[in-house]
Amino acid sequence: MNWLSPDSKFMQAWGNFTDAIIINLLMLVTGIPIVTIGAALSAGQTASRKMLIGQGHVTRNYFAAFKENFVRATILWIVYLLFGAALVYCWIVLQITPLLIPKIALTILWVIGFEWVFALQARFENPPTRTMVNAYVFGVTYFPATLALVAIDAVYCGLFVYLWFKLPQMLFLLAVLGYGSLLSLHVPIQEYVLRKYTGQPFSTHVQEDTWSVKKHQ
């Protein structure tokens, strides 16, 4: 029965699974005002990273990061929200053939930035404009990692659409698992890329006093 030991791989995995659900629920609740979604995304990034390295308490980590990132993450989110809303309008209303290529290009640009900008906000102390620029630098320079992040999100979105039309009674379960849980898949990919900039290898054995909430770039 060693697999039931608190130090066993099974129990660690189970603990991470339940913590990921908690992070998702915290993101759902704190993102209800819509304008706070950016802060929720950044806080989810930090809480997921610390969860995976076994540092601190997930709820305390989340709210500390939410407070710390609130202003800058909100500015970033408003920019991406307005840009995203404009893209949705263009796809739905502006059904003009010559605009097809620009719409595709701008959509790809939005997706690349979205996959990195809140992770960088959670990890580095920079002005919003520099964080946005860095998001595209990382997104393009490390394009295979970006594709992996997009693939994870695409699977989730595809599953959401499928359940919406085929098994709507399962949508509640998907909402509980949610995007916040996906961050536990995002973080290892992003940290693998960022390790040369943070000077910290992604490890499950990092002590709490050596893994700060922020690291200046």
Automatic annotation (TrEMBL):
> Which superkingdom is the protein from?
Bacteria
Coiled-coil positions: none
GO molecular-function term, one example from the UniProt record: monooxygenase activity
Membrane-spanning residues? 20-41, 70-94, 100-120, 132-165, 171-189
Keywords attached to this entry: Membrane, Monooxygenase, Oxidoreductase, Transmembrane, Transmembrane helix
Protein's recorded name: Beta-carotene 15,15'-monooxygenase
Organism, as annotated = Bifidobacterium castoris
